[in-house]
Amino acid sequence: MQDEHILLVDDEKGILTMLELLLHKEGFRHISTAASGQEAMALVEGASFDLIVLDVMLPDTDGFGLCQQIRRYTTVPVLFLTARSGDYDKLMGLGIGGDDYITKPFNPMEVVARIRAQLRRKNQYGAPAAPAAQVMDFGVFAVDKSAAVLTVHGVDTPCPAKEYELLVFLCEHPNQVFTALQLYEQVWGRALTGDEKTVVIHISRLRKRLGEDPADPKYIVNLRGIGYKFVPARKAAIHED
To answer: What CATH code would you report for 134-240?
Structure first.
């Protein structure tokens, strides 16, 4: 049985019931549901969740705006599940803090598979790989892998799961060039046509989080027509306590 607590937010009762029954069948015991943005925020403010499945078109609010409110309380993975299938909507969802985007109609087992993948990565980065602390220090920012914490200018900086995983991967492979699809495959675990846009959005968000000038980034550099590479401002200092 799975101990993770999942929140399902959708105004279609049939979808909520179907997903709840399917997740119970797949071993998830702790599932909460909400049919509106107001209900969802009341639950988020009062409980701790490990993953949120969020519809975009809700009766009382827009799911994109709701995601931004949720991000004030938690950085857990948010998986959009919506009938809005345009590229602009997908980019919007990923740009404002979503970690994945599935369009309706959908394969229920694919939703379960993506939920498991998000939780697996969240748990992987949420637990220390070893008792000793390990910090990659690049001067302006540092990544503590054992605590899954990003600090910028010495201040703890909230970082959603996928952004954090992408940053860790880049930091662990300095000065190596990766295409957007290679980064997607390494961090999201699969590579499909069009997923370059997801990487572009997450890199843009990371640059802002690190305080980089988007017109002249120093750390995450774009090699036009080739890909991206992480360039340390100075040799990383690895601390093991």
So the answer is: 1.10.10.10
